[in-house]
Amino acid sequence: RRDCTSFSQLTFLDLIHLSLAGPIGGISYLILFNSYPEWPEVIPMKFVTTGTVINSLRQVFVNHCLPRAIMPRNVTKFSFTLFDDFCRDRNISLLVSG
User: Which CATH architecture fits 4-94?
Assistant: First the structure.
């Protein structure tokens, strides 16, 4: 894993927006977007559960680094208790818009 502490004030994966799209043709899409630098990642998913989303995020974080915060949108299928535990265990702020 990369060390995120050496990055400047506004860093890669500081805040990622997380959304779900679909299904389209039986496939849903986990969409991650970072505002700075502009970085999208789209992960096709046959089954969308909180667990499958968390597993996909683990893979993204292995390839990059942990964000400081995640803002989920359009994710009504989530168990926010499980997702909040996942974020808290990694010291990631979970931002939920009201």
Answer: 2-Layer Sandwich (3.30)
Q: Would you state the pLDDT for residue 13?
A: 64
- How is the chain split into domains, by residue range? 4-94
Burial of 30 (0-12, 13-18, 19+ CB in 10 A): buried
Give long-range contacts, CB 8 A cutoff, 24+ apart: 47-54: 48/20, 48/77, 49/77, 50/77, 50/78, 50/79, 50/82, 50/83, 51/82, 53/18, 53/20, 53/78, 53/83, 54/82, 54/83, 54/86
pTM of this prediction? 0.80
Going from the C-alpha of 63 to that of each of 16, 81, 95, the distances in angstroms are: 15, 25, 23
User: Are the beta carbons of 54 and 82 closer than 8 angstroms?
Assistant: yes
